[in-house]
Amino acid sequence: MRFQLEGARIYDPTSSLRLPPAGPGELPRGNLQVEDGRIVAAGAELPAGGARVLDATGLVLAPGLADLHVHFRDPGEEAKEDLVSGGRAAVAGGFAHVVTMANTRPPIDEVPRLRDLITRSGASPVRIHPAAAVTRGLGGESLTEMVRLAEAGACAFTDDGRPLPDARMARLAMRYSTLAGRPLLLHAEDPSLSAGGVMRLGLAATRMGLKGIPATSEEVAIAREIALARETGARIHLQHLSTARAVELVRQAKEEGLPVTAEVTPHHLALTDEAVARWGASAKMNPPLGTAADREALRQALAQGLIDCIATDHAPHSREEKDQELDLAPFGVVGLETALGVVLTELVHTGLLDLARALHLLTAGPAAILDLPAGRLDVGGPADLVLIDPWERWTVEPERFASKGRHTPFAGAVLTGRAVATWVGGRLQAVGGRPVDDEAEGWRALEAHLAGRAGAGDPGARPAGETPEPRSLWRAERARTPA
Ligand SMILES: [Zn+2]
Predict the structure, then answer these.
(1) Backbone dihedral region for residue 257 (phi beyond 0: left; psi -120 to 50: alpha; all else: beta)
(2) Distance from the CA of 286 to the center of ligand 1, in angstroms?
(3) How far is the CA of 165 from the centre of ligand 1 (A)?
(4) The pTM is what?
(5) Fewest 10 Å CB contacts: which of 86, 203, 298, 316?
(6) Would you say 97 is a known binding-site residue?
(7) What is the pLDDT of residues 336-351, one digit of tens each?
(8) What's the 185 CA to ligand 1 centre distance in angstroms?
């Protein structure tokens, strides 16, 4: 099948398509043609030559989003999520690539299990890059065969869900991950400080009479991991930063030139511990939501280029488990279907980030950390694409999620910005925030959606008078000195 997207603003992180900017420093407008799953041509003027044409004026075309942190619960807890339902949630949210965590049942700690997962991933609509476990059975006592797991396709190593228990094991893991040539994804938590905690220690927890997790639980662990990375030279990636001081530790490590990268989740960027009173278990995750000062520090770190990517920590659980008393309910919320909308609403439309910077954090930023074949647009390369309407207003309805998970602190939120369509390898996988089951039907839905927007025009001022700074939306990423 051959199709051409016309008139979209194109976010081309590596400038591979060589499109001239539309205005000084602005995202270029252009056409992009796809045939047999690959991008075959791009240009400001491009004859359609018989391709199926879609008018994408006023929309943004970007590489399919990449998420370094998802829990698909497969194998073992497929009632919570499986490779297909998780993949459907991913493409619905605009993602073409995800990195699955290894804390399944059993965990991905042996080559045959990894091979089985990779084989079964072919049935998922999203491209799955599995991470393998650092320790056998996630037990924290003996290392997995990291070199063999890397050779078999593990893109990284992580015991996420739990921290590495002691410094000796973390140090050993760093040595072997270096031999294996893959980074460690580290969940930074000191269980001697966090044990029994439900939410962040502080005023909100005291008011609710709940046991708190101190911010130092994360900070002590991050300080340890950075010290060990300095000693071993290992590449480490710090998952889901949640405190202001954690940000400072990352800043120092980067200033020192250590190979340390970090991610932050949309929920830590959007919410504070006050959300737990309102949302209960739907705002219970690990690390917990922090204070307003933490949230501000995380936002500023993103704006300064200090944090390398946004990752969802999509962590579905069953209704029965989440409906328990708050101190019994498991940690974790879903995030794949709300991430883009939350980022656009909270960070871009508020003027904190350029659209291009936000998209970097969801495409080329994460891809670079794990050397994933993602986050770029190349003629001849795979057509992993997302078409985004940065102005579409929609209400988060968890009952309509493609994920089997329903728990999100964004239920009922009205967001501005959404993935209109997602292609993976040129195949249309989602339209209007819903996965596509029948591709022909999907194309009809997409054409109807685009026809409904016809005449909306480009300059980003739509809907009139609503959100300020319409022009800044199209600004190409400003040069940033690396932090
Ligand atoms: Zn974690």
Answers:
(1) left
(2) 6
(3) 14
(4) 0.95
(5) 203
(6) no
(7) 999 999 999 999 999 9
(8) 9
Q: Which domain holds residue 6?
A: 2-62+415-474
103 is known to lie in a ligand binding site = yes
Is residue 331 part of an annotated ligand binding site? yes
Strands (E) in 272-410, as ranges, are 309-310, 385-395
Residues 6+ apart with CB under 8 A from 274: 204
pLDDT of residue 32: 98
Q: Give the CATH number for residue 97.
A: 3.20.20.140
Q: Which two tokens stand for residue 109?
A: 């700690």
Are 284 and 346 in a shared domain?
A: yes
* Residue 296 parent element (H or E): helix 292-303
Residue 240 marked ligand-binding = yes
- Is residue 246, in this structure, part of any structural domain at all? yes
Which of the two residues, 476 and 109, has the higher pLDDT score? 109
Task: Report the catalytic residues.
Answer: 313
Q: Assess contact for 354 and 361: CB atoms under 8 A.
A: no
Measured distance CA(205)–CA(276) in Å, rounded: 9
| Residue 207 belongs to a domain | yes
* Residue 457 confidence (pLDDT): 59
**Dihedral sign of CA atoms 245, 250, 254, 258 in order:** positive
- Alpha carbon of 246 to ligand 1 centroid (Å): 15
- Tell whether residue 69 is among the known ligand binding residues: yes
In the chain, what are the helix, strand and coil shares in percent, each to the nearest 5? 35, 20, 45
Q: What is the pLDDT of residues 234-264, one digit of tens each?
A: 999 999 999 999 999 999 999 999 999 999 9
CA 36, distance to chain mean position in Å, is 27
**CA-to-CA separations, 52 to 4, 60, 326, 435, in angstroms, rounded:** 6, 19, 52, 21
Same domain, 329 and 228: yes
Q: How many domains does the chain have?
A: 2
How many Å lie between the centroid of ligand 1 and the Cα of residue 189? Answer: 9
Residue 326 within a domain: yes
pLDDT at residue 230 above 60? yes
Instruction: Give the three-class secondary structure for 209.
Output: coil
DSSP for 189-207, written as a single string: --HHHHTT--EESSHHHHH
Ligand 1 center to residue 285 CA distance, Å? Answer: 9
Banded model confidence at residue 20, pLDDT cuts 50, 70, 90: confident
